[in-house]
Design a protein that fits this description.
The chain is an all-alpha fold. The protein has two domains: 57 residues; 52 residues. The chain has six helices and no strands. α1 packs across α4, α2 packs across α3 and α4 packs across α5. The longest helix is centred in the middle third of the chain and has 25 residues. The chain is elongated, with a radius of gyration of 31 Å. The mean pLDDT is 80.
Length: 154
């Protein structure tokens, strides 16, 4: 079945004009609105009320396989990416403040990556087996692990 479009270019929901509730269509405008409302800290019931839909409909069309936390993180990442692209365009056009801000953002990302590497805990060393532990216990402190096999020393 081919889906039609209204005068604004939005798809017409199935069942339009027939008895019963018409389906909700997640338009680009509504998707963008939900993202910004999430970034503003709104909760699902308030967002659903703003759009005039139920919470299950909101979940079905806007949070398909994601939690609200994942959706907020995604919206924040998209907003930051859009801002960085605009900064890059301004810097390419010769805007010195945009160049400085872009360098500052790049420096911050670099520091975040370095801090993440420093925070990563080291894996605990594998515990020694019985035989290895006995060998280590039998060795006097301060000796080398490798002892020469031949008696000849030059």
């Amino acid at each position: 079945m081919e889906r039609g479009f209204d005068l604004l270019g939005d798809p017409i929901p199935e069942g339009r004009g027939q008895p019963g509730a018409t389906g909700h269509i997640a338009t680009a405008k509504n998707v963008n609105k939900v993202r910004w409302l999430l970034l503003a800290g709104w909760k699902k019931p308030k967002i659903a009320q703003e759009l005039g839909i139920s919470i299950p409909t909101l979940n079905k069309h806007y949070f398909k396989n994601r939690s609200i936390k994942d959706a907020v993180l995604l919206a924040a990442a998209e907003a930051r990416g859009r801002t960085l692209l605009q900064l890059d365009q301004a810097a390419q056009a010769g805007s010195v403040p945009a160049m400085k801000e872009l360098a500052k953002q790049a420096r911050q990302v670099e520091l975040d990556c370095l801090a993440k590497d420093l925070r990563t805990p080291k894996a605990d060393p594998k515990p020694l087996g019985k035989k290895e532990q006995r060998k280590q216990d039998a060795r006097p402190d301060g000796t080398w692990d490798f002892l020469p096999q031949s008696k000849e020393v030059h």
